[in-house]
Amino acid sequence: MTTAARKIRLVMELRRSGINDTHVLSAIERIPREAFVPEAFQDQAYENRALPIGFGQTLSQPGVVAAMTQALKTDRRLKVLEIGTGSGYQGAILSRLCRRLYTIERYRDLGREAEARFYDLRLHNITTRIGDGYKGWPEQAPFSRIIVTAAALEVPGTLVDQLSPGGILIVPIGQTGREQALLRLTRDEYGQIHEERLGGVRFVPMVAGLPATAEASQAPRRARA
Ligand code: SAH
């Protein structure tokens, strides 16, 4: 099967699973997922599954990326913050659907590789940072939308504080290795926060602080299954 055929098959599968936002579907069609997938997994780039990207981290399943993007209700006028750049795939999709994306990754090598992909794909409305996502991005706050692509044990208060009125935060909450609750928090015009549970997901953990330099440069590039 050709890449184009695999891509069409994936988009049809996403439609059947309830992704009906045409902007989200066309972003999935336009961003080449193979550019974010390690060499050894190229043949699986358009399978609806998560793939390893090194440092024990994963590139999320397309179905999860699509569902989270749709739930974020973003549009071309908005400023968006992503925590957990990883491969950069989720960020690339978001960049087509917002004015500017700010994305933070704690592993330097992952962040730099993602940045190179954004450059190659000419996604020029993305700003990357190596840092601890628990701190958010105070210099650029507030954000209309915030998406966390790693699981926290509780909703990070700093990120809630960096949300604009009318803003939406999406974050998986729960322990690693178990099903986590995908939460959507909305800040209304009066500053009140409303919380909804969107479903169950499985993400790698959101870890505070930066990896030790030695760990960052010597970690085996093997991934969790
Ligand atoms: N959005 C990514 C998914 C990456 S997996 C993609 O599309 O490929 C989650 C990522 O979050 C990992 O790369 C991990 O290193 C990162 N991460 C975990 N805790 C973090 C933190 N506190 N700050 C920034 N990044 C974090």
The number of distinct structural domains comes to: 1
Ligand set: S-adenosyl-L-homocysteine
CATH homology group: Vaccinia Virus protein VP39
Task: Tell me the Rg in angstroms.
Answer: 16 Å
Number of strands: 9
Q: Which segments are poorly predicted (pLDDT under 50) over 5 or more consecutive residues?
A: 214-225
Strand content: 25-35%
Helix/strand structural class: alpha/beta
Distance between the termini: 25 Å
Main beta sheet, described?
A: 7 strands, mixed
CATH second-level architecture: 3-Layer(aba) Sandwich
What's the CATH topology label? Rossmann fold
Description:
The protein has 225 residues and is an alpha/beta fold. It has one domain: Rossmann fold (3-Layer(aba) Sandwich), CATH 3.40.50.150. It has 7 helices and 9 strands; from the N terminus they run ααββαβαβαββαβββα. The chain has helices at residues 3-16, 22-30, 62-72, 89-95, 108-120, 157-161, 213-218; strands at 51-54, 57-59, 79-83, 100-105, 126-130, 143-148, 163-173, 180-187, 193-201. It has a 7-stranded mixed beta sheet with strand order 5-4-3-6-7-8-9. A hairpin with a 6-residue loop joins β7 and β8. The longest helix has 14 residues, at 3-16. It is globular. Mean pLDDT is 94; it is low at 214-225. Bound molecules: S-adenosyl-L-homocysteine (SAH).
